[in-house]
User: Fold this.
Amino acid sequence: MSLKRPTRRDIFKIAAAAPALALPAPLQAALSAPSAGGNPGHFRFDLGEMRLTVISDGHLLLPTSGLGVNAEPEEVQALLARYHLSTEENYSHTNHLLIETGAARVLVDIGSGNRFMPTAGRLMANLEAAGVDPYSITHVVITHAHPDHVWGVRDDFDEAILPDAEFIMGRAEHDYWMQDGLATSVSQDMQQFVVGAVNSITTEGLDWTLAEDGHEVVPGVRLIFTPGHTLGHMSVQLDSGDRSLIALGDTMTHAYMNFDAPDWVTGFDMDAEQTVATRRRLLDMAAEDGIAVLGYHFPFPGVGHVIREGAAYRFVPALWRWQG
Assistant:
């Protein structure tokens, strides 16, 4: 069976017509029911002295033909089927991290607002539902400038949606998207990504802090350079007491495929070889040092650990204890 790799233009066509995922009635009711400690829009837990909240911006629906583009399509389909996943549609969560430490409130990525897919753009509403005043956020870290991570930076009047926060992006990421003539030098289906990134970065009222590897956002929160998915991608490492967690951004976008077949890449990974090298470095570090990980596109809330299984790995979701 031969599958056509989707272009970014295909993605935008799908986004315009994307339906909501239909779930069986009992499961839908369970997901909608409020629970002590969290709900489908937010989930809180502690990491040492830090208070963390995973906030959903919604979800994305993408064709599975964009997964494992350097593998045989039949192998990709077989892996998806083995994990009881759709072989046609990739349901992808969007898990943002809010870090509360000392007087700081640090948000990782700002979502897509109403500019990308109709199934996303829930971040601000879910922050408020979690009892968080968005205007109390002191720092916003942008892992990379793809639509679902940065397009929500501006409101309908093209002004900064969180004008009082410090916005931080890797210098290499910023310089890539802002280089002269980029929009005319990339493929036609990539041009919307470039224009959207430039419009986001140049939003009125924003002053960017351009960071290098190891940049300390606040004590215990630092950026680590993790290129590949984009050329300047940054992940966020948290350290508090004897506990650590890495917010992976898009270094890993699939909670099963990226662990079972870590050398497979997606159609959105800009540098395939570097993507794999970065991913394996993070997987090894998380497995060896017992560092928890948060996958932006993993099933909500996306937090767990990494274990090694021969030449591959496995993502083990954290076991939560409800309190109340």
